[in-house]
Structures are given as structure tokens and as C-alpha cells.
Amino acid sequence: xxxxxxxxxxxxxxxxxxxxxxxxxxxxxxxxxxxxxxxxxxxxxxxxxxxxxxxxxxxxxxxxxxxxxxxxxxxxxxxxxxxxxxxxxxxxxxxxxxxxxxxxxxxxxxxxxxxxxxxxxxxxxxxxxxxxxxxxxxxxxxxxxxxxxxxxxxxxxxxxxxxxxx
Length: 166
Fold this sequence. Notes:
Elements: H1 7-10, H2 28-48, H3 52-62, H4 69-81, H5 83-90, H6 103-118, H7 124-138, H8 143-158, H9 160-164
Helix pairs in contact: 2-3, 2-4, 2-6, 3-4, 5-6, 6-7, 6-8, 7-8
């Protein structure tokens, strides 16, 4: 039996197909794990009032596997530095004081607000969806609805250009 000819052998003038390159982006699962750890680290920061660098070191030591540590460190260490600015974005959209929110909800609102304001490389729908999913896993019964509502309103101001392009 004769070997079958490839497309380029059948038609030498046909453009050659390029081999797909390996992606240089961080796999989504690694980013999702890092986002979960950021939420947990923010929760710990709110409860313990420990220094963020100490919490970061602890999380590195205790968590193995494939995790986007660059993302974790950037986001987790920046949120405490930007807390006042993040509070100014969040507070007008709440039906109660920020400090009266459950620590999980507060952590997720800080994470979502930080990403909406500073990580325009992450689509706003991804930011909202990831925070809602984390709220379903770690939050109170209907906290995911609250997180969704606040971040959706926030996206309209922080990502107005992205929303207008849709």
C-alpha cells in the first residue's frame, strides 16, 4: 500500500500549515488556583491583621502544585497598599458599611475591584465570574448574588470602554 501524500505534496503551491506554538500564557487552572489563594490570603489578612509579606511567605510554604505565583504575589501584595482607593470604588455601591461585610465577601470585593481597576488584561466578565464562583464555594448562601451585583455595577464605571466595545 502506497503512503498517503500530505496536502503540500498533493499541491506544492498550497500554503504550508504552521505547527501550533506552545502557549506562553499561564494556564487558566494555575490562575484560578492563584486567585483562590489570593482570596484566602486576603481573608487571613482581614482576620489576623498580619503583615502581607508574612502571609505571602506562609502561603508559598504551605501550597504546592502548579500555581501562578507571579499573579498571586502581585495581586495579594498590592491590594493592602491600595485599600483606601479600593474602598472608594466599593463603598458607594454597598447597602451597608464595608467593615460590616463578611470577611469572605470583603476579600472577594477587594479582589474583583483590584482586577477591574488594574488588570485590564483580564476581561471584566472573567473577573466577575471568578469572584462569583469563589463566593459560591467559600461564601454564605447568597453572597454570590451580592458579589455579582456589586462587581457588575463597578464594571460599568471601571470598564466603560470595554463595555462600550461590546
